[in-house]
Amino acid sequence: MIRRASGKDLAGLKDFLTRAGLGTEGLTEETAEYFLLLENEDQTCRGTLGIEPYEENGLLRSLVVTPGQVENDIFLLFQQAFLLAKEEKIQHLFLATKKSVAVPLFQMLGFEKVDKGELPKELSQSAHINHILNVDNSIFLKYSL
Questions:
Q1: pTM of the entire structure?
Q2: Is the N or the C terminus of the chain less surrounded, counting Cβ atoms within 10 Å?
Q3: Residue 26: what pLDDT?
Q4: Which residues contact 37 (CB under 8 A, 6 or more apart)?
Q5: The domain spanning residue 7 has which CATH number?
């Protein structure tokens, strides 16, 4: 099952992301509502994907799935993220990665590579983007809704 997180999920979400080795800066009760949770039957978190909203743009972050999750679960997380973005009136989703092996998956989902210079200026407010901008092999992709 995939559901939208709420402020009540904050502690569990932070714990899940920390165990995956990801930062939780900027994650609050309010921003938790922009995260999706993939859960199994006993409501154990098996994956997550979040959106940092910036006006009509959004930054996808914190894609984590536990080992053993099937590709279909990842696709469902993205489909639900696209629906959440539309609901929140977000027109473009961006993502950043250092893993070039992941790019074909993102392209299969409809993302297109963009240069750093094409990123909307409001994304520079993101600590995540500012960190990635300083990494030599960073790749940016965009999905238009």
A1: 0.90
A2: N
A3: 83
A4: 2, 3, 4, 5, 9, 13, 45, 47, 48
A5: 3.40.630.30
